[in-house]
Inverse folding.
C-alpha cells in the first residue's frame, strides 16, 4: 500500500522513497553534523517536507502508518530548534491520506497540501488542511472529481486565502493537467484553472510573483523537445496564463521546486536525463522574470541523482536537497544529497548522507545560526520501517 504512496511524494510522480557516513570536509567549508534524529512509530512514515514554524522551530509533513485512523494518515510534526518533538497530529479517514507540503500562515497556524482517498468525489482528491499554532484542525477541504487529483504545493495568497498547484485527471484536456486552485480564507474554492495538452502534465511547485500572479513549475509530456520536459507556467492574479516555457532535451526532464531569486528571477530545481554526467542528474536552472533561461547546470555521477527542493541561502546562493541511487536503481534512493551553490549555480560543496540503508533528502533550509536542516525519511535509526528524518549541520 505505502509503495503507491511513495510514488506520489515529491519528485516527478512525487518519487521519493538517508548511522550516517559523512564525506570528508573540503576547502569550501563543508558543514558538519550537529545532530540527526528520526520520528515515527512501528509502521512507515514517509515524506518529511520541512518549513520554518515561525517561533524558532520547524514543521514537517508527510504520511504515517503508525498513527491515526486509516491505512495511512496525513501527518504533521512540530520540532524545536534542537530537533526535539513538540507535538504531532494525524489527519485522515479509513483510506490513504498524504501531506505533501506545509507552510506557516500569517495567523500563526499552518496550511498543508496533499491528497486523500478517504473522502471527496472519487479516486484521489486534493486536500487542504488548515491548523492553528498547536496543530489542531480549523478546517479541511477536498477538491477534485472522479479521477486522481493531487495538491502538491500551497501558498498563502497576498490578497487573502490560499492557492495551490498540483495535478488533475478529472479536469482539463489531456491524460493529466497542471492544476491551479484559489480558495478564500476558509478553504472555499474561488476559481480553478487547468493547463496542459494531450499528454501527461504535472504541477509540482508554486510561488507568487511580484505582480500578484503565480508561477508553477512542473513537467509536461504535451510540449517541448521530447519525453517529459521541465515546464514553467506564469499566470495573472486570476490564474489566466500569461506565458509558459519548456526546458529540456530528448529524454526525461522535470522540475520539482521553485524559489524566488533576489534579482526578480527564479531558480528551479529538478532532474534531467537529457543533460549531465549520468543516468538522471540533479538539475538546477535560473530564469529571469519573464522565464528566459540565464543559466543551467547539473550535479551527479553515473548513478541516478534527483533534486527535490531548492531554497535561498543568506549569501545569495542556494541550497538543493535530493537523493542519489548508488546501487544503480533509477528510482530508489540510497543516500540523501545536500548541495550548496553560489548565485551563479557554481557548486561550493556537496554532501551525501547514507550508509547501509535508505536516506532520501526531501527538503533543506538554512537556519538562523548559519547552519542547515536537511529533512526527508530513512529506514535507519528509527522506530520501524521508514521514519521522518532531520539532520542539522553547521
Amino acid at each position: 500500500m505505502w509503495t503507491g504512496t511513495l510514488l506520489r511524494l515529491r519528485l516527478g510522480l512525487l518519487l521519493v522513497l538517508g548511522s550516517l557516513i559523512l564525506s570528508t570536509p573540503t576547502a569550501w567549508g563543508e558543514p558538519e553534523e550537529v545532530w540527526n534524529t528520526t520520528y515515527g512509530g512501528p509502521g512507515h512514515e514517509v515524506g518529511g517536507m520541512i518549513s520554518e514554524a515561525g517561533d524558532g522551530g520547524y514543521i514537517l509533513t508527510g504520511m504515517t502508518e503508525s498513527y491515526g485512523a486509516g491505512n495511512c494518515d496525513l501527518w504533521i510534526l512540530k520540532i524545536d530548534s534542537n530537533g526535539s518533538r513538540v507535538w504531532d497530529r494525524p489527519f485522515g479517514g479509513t483510506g490513504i491520506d498524504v501531506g505533501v507540503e506545509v507552510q506557516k500562515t500569517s495567523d500563526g497556524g499552518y496550511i498543508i497540501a496533499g491528497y486523500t482517498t478517504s473522502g471527496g468525489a472519487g479516486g484521489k482528491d486534493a486536500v487542504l488542511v488548515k491548523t492553528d499554532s498547536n496543530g489542531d484542525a480549523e478546517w479541511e477541504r477536498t477538491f477534485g472529481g472522479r479521477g486522481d487529483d493531487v495538491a502538491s504545493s500551497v501558498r498563502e495568497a497576498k490578497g487573502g486565502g490560499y492557492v495551490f498547484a498540483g495535478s488533475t485527471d478529472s479536469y482539463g484536456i489531456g491524460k493529466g493537467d497542471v492544476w491551479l486552485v484559489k480558495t478564500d480564507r476558509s478553504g472555499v474554492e474561488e476559481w480553478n484553472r487547468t493547463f496542459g495538452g494531450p499528454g501527461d502534465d504535472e504541477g509540482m511547485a508554486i510561488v507568487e510573483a511580484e505582480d500578484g500572479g503565480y508561477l508553477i513549475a512542473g513537467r509536461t509530456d504535451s510540449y517541448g523537445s521530447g519525453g517529459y520536459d521541465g515546464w514553467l507556467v506564469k499566470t495573472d492574479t486570476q490564474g489566466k496564463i500569461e506565458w509558459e516555457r519548456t526546458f529540456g532535451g530528448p529524454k526525461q526532464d522535470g522540475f520539482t521546486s521553485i524559489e524566488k531569486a533576489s534579482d526578480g528571477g527564479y531558480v528551479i530545481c529538478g532532474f534531467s536525463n537529457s543533460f549531465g554526467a549520468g543516468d538522471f542528474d540533479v538539475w538546477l536552472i535560473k530564469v529571469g522574470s519573464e522565464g528566459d533561461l540565464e543559466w543551467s547546470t547539473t550535479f551527479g555521477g553515473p548513478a541516478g541523482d534527483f533534486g527535490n527542493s531548492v531554497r535561498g541561502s543568506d549569501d545569495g546562493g542556494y541550497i538543493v536537497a535530493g537523493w542519489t541511487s548508488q546501487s544503480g536503481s533509477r528510482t530508489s534512493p540510497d543516500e540523501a544529497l545536500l548541495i550548496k551553490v553560489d548565485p551563479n549555480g557554481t557548486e561550493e560543496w556537496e554532501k551525501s548522507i547514507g550508509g547501509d540503508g535508505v536516506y532520501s533528502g526531501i527538503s533543506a533550509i538554512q537556519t538562523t545560526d548559519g547552519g542547515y536542516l536537511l529533512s526527508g525519511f530513512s529506514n535507519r535509526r528509527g522506530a520501524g520501517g521508514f521514519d521522518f528524518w532531520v539532520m542539522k549541520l553547521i
Observations:
- The chain has one helix and 28 strands.
